[in-house]
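Explain this protein:
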Amino acid sequence: MAVNGSISYNYLGASGLKVSNICLGTMTFGILKGSYPVFESKTQLDEAKAIKVMDRYAELGGNFLDTANIYAGGKSEEIVGNWLQKQKRDKFVVATKCRFQIDPNDLNKGGLSRRHIIQSVEESLARLKTNYIDLMQAHMWDNGTPIAETLRTFDDLVRCGKIRYYGFSNVCGWQLQKIVDFSESHGLNRPISLQQQYSLLCRQSEWEEFMVCKNEGLGVLPWSPLKSGYLTGKFKRGTKPDKAQSRIGFYNDDDKRAKQGGLSWDDYAANDAYWDLIDKMGKIAASHGKSIPQVAIRWLLQQDVVASVIIGATSVKQLEDNMGASTGWELTKEEMATLDTASPRLSCYPYDMIWRGNGPDRFNQFNRSIKI
């Protein structure tokens, strides 16, 4: 793992591409009224503030930026593109995404069809002001398009140089295995990454999706590592988050929207296990002279399947604190075990039975990526 001052670098999956182990997510860049409510949040950044965050990220050695065509209706990509114009493009790895319905009045402006992927790539290239995208990601599975069409399109785009690599996001285990198997059996370029929600409060993907990643050589890019703020330690029992100061407070102005996003304050406010986890994180943080968010991110970085953790920053100060998790210190085995035990991971069939039946005595380090 190469180290450059404040940050470390990892290979992204089984590719030869190296990325900083902290990726700057840009969903907070750009303000858009009348669209997805999240982009009206008080924590969204205008272009001037977003550029300051990117400048500092680059100063600290970060080289990996993640955006999407749907973020603030394309404004996020535009802001990143304007910033890239003043940088040495080859120093940075730029990732974006497509899949969601961009224009409700155009039936073909959504999904993972050949037409929409190619159109999305062309539009993203224009907004990003670049002639190639380092990592193009499918934002979610599309039941309306055969996976063969999607994968052949990504392969064509790699071959013609419009994108360098591709990955997927927000998929389940059987979908990810199908993606890998089809691309390999048909001689196509394989995906190199999976961007998935992953944190001490969201561990479901450990059961299946991450097992596919380990076996098939895909690097995991956790999004929402602080669970939209629940793992920052800044909230107190009995005090409702302020909508002007946090995304959680903003979401909980509309309880329906909050529950859909898994962000409802009511789900955590009276949950003793949640407060116990925060307490343990606080003690571990204090023992290292670190912050609670740094502990949350460090826990992810020490998972062997994780290539880079995607952080969102609404200020330079927040960015600097999160970047402090990158290198120069580690959680001990005992501290990792404490957090593993304190964080929720639902036990359900057949996963619990599979994991019990494949304990340490049945682990074969050479039995990885073996093709039958």
User: Anything to note?
Assistant: The chain is about 35% helix and 15% strand. The radius of gyration is 20 Å. The longest strand covers residues 163-169. The mean pLDDT is 91.
